[in-house]
Amino acid sequence: MRLVERLTDDMKQAMKSKDKLKLSVIRMVKSAIKNEEINHGKELSDDEVLTVLTRELKQRRDSLQEFEKAGRDDLAAASRDEIAVLMEYMPEQLGEEDIRKLVAEAIEQTSASSKKDMGKVMGVLMPKVKGRADGALVNKVVQELLQ
């Protein structure tokens, strides 16, 4: 089943079960997907939908950090709930050890030797971890291994 179809089915189910949180999050995601489809002038593939989901997830995580800094526990809790709903649609996340292996392979493949080569490594690596790992964590591991 395509990701968009799954979102639609889950939205219908959330309506039936009166799950307001899930319904709200799915509607926001479907709206973002529709905007991307309009911008690209075509229906999005699952890979492109995953990119939209990743962007939405990153926005929620950034908001969560800001709410926690400001001491807004009510808004932070709401962001955590939204993140939990979005994570249901993401592929299984890679652990730090798996990321380290992929980074080491990418460094070897690009013959990178210093931080100047970070762009090459990230260019090879990001398509492999797309949607399966947090970009900040990948960036941190690449910097560690290139030192």
From TrEMBL:
Key words of the record: Transferase
Single annotated GO MF: carbon-nitrogen ligase activity, with glutamine as amido-N-donor
Keyword Magnesium: no
Pfam families given in the database record: YqeY
SUPFAM superfamilies in the record: GatB/YqeY motif (SSF89095)
Gene3D superfamilies: 1.10.10.410, Uncharacterised protein YqeY/AIM41 PF09424, N-terminal domain
Identification of the protein by name: Glutamyl-tRNA(Gln) amidotransferase subunit E
Taxonomic source organism: Aneurinibacillus soli
